[in-house]
Prior knowledge:
Blueprint: H1 29-33, E1 41-45, E2 50-52, E3 60-66, E4 69-74, E5 80-86, E6 91-92, E7 106-109, E8 113-119, H2 120-129, H3 131-157, H4 160-171, E9 177-179, E10 185-188, H5 191-198, H6 202-214, E11 219-221, E12 224-227, H7 229-238, E13 239-241, E14 247-249
Antiparallel strand pairs: 1-8, 2-7, 3-6, 3-8, 4-5, 4-7, 9-10, 10-12, 11-12, 13-14
Amino acid sequence: MSFGATENVVGEREHTTVESDSSLSSVGLDELLMRPLLGARTREVVAGSVLFEPDTPAHHLYFIRSGQVRVYQPGPDGSTRLVEILGPGDWCGAASLAEEERHGNRAVAVTPAVVVEAPADRWLAVLAERPALATRWIATLASKLQAARADAACLMFDDCNSRLVRTLLHFSRSSAAAPSEDGGVVLRITHQQLAQAVGAARETVSLALTQLRQRNLVRTGRNQLFFDPRVLENFGRHGRTTANGDARPEHGRQIA
Length: 256
């Protein structure tokens, strides 16, 4: 996917009851963002709107009040990797906290969204006045850091099938997922978008999904996947699928 392309997501929901790992919705965030001294501005954007590009100066944080935003990491050959799916209560723009000159990533609203854009330096001043919020904020930063380290290890040490399972579990907690009637989740994502997240060719990811479907771990629909995260996580812990579809033990354990 080139940076000039508009992200198209079919059937996305603007709100969901699934809360992501980086959510701050429980700490009175809306009230703080409306403080005049913060200097934040609320933006109502249409699907396809870009919040920031890789070369955008990193001066602001972006808090999502409604809708869905996806963050992409650019590659040297013009390719991109889907790294985050964000929804209400989530935020992006961490480069502004790290005193980076540029954001380095691209953030795109894939549904109509309401986003609050806040100066990073003023936000840090607000945190200094509110220890409880600062503690929660540190926890979300730590969560992002741990996820980034685990993601790097996954790319280095795991095969495509293992990365796919991990990506499905990660996105099952994002705003792209919603509870299904059978107790699992429905994840609204295309094979191409999933391939961008896994870091593999679309054909390879489609084959891996077929193997999971044959094991009744995933059901597929038009631009959506149905699965039970608990069952899939158990499979990821006990075994993984090889390229020919056979199961092999993970860390010496045999699949029951």
